[in-house]
Design a protein that fits this description.
28% strand; globular; 6 strands
Amino acid sequence: MIARILLVILLLLPVQLFAAEAKSGRFLHEVVASSKVHEQSLRHLLQGERGLPSWVRNMLSRPRYVSGASQAVTVDGMSMELFGACLAKQCPDSHLRVLFLPDGKVVALRVADKVLGEVVLGKPSTEALSQLRREGL
């Protein structure tokens, strides 16, 4: 009986580990539209924040941004998904990066805007902040 239980545990273990890995190749607008956890987590982070460009404040209700494919990254030993987005047709002037955990909870967000400057939301570690400051979408 114990051998059967151990076998079941060993068979399920890789599935559990795979489920906790961050994904990649997804687009921010599709993820927030299809995942309530991602959408609510991002909404909570943005809610009431001042000093954000209007396209970021309204990104969940009136999306005017484009995004690149997400990347799976490891930050502080944890799997995360890194998304990049920018104001359509003005990417060099106003863009953001956001880190999500595999469960859909947002870790931190960084906005870089030519007029408003840099805004960091959440409490990113030094390693997370370096990921948020990476170039590109």
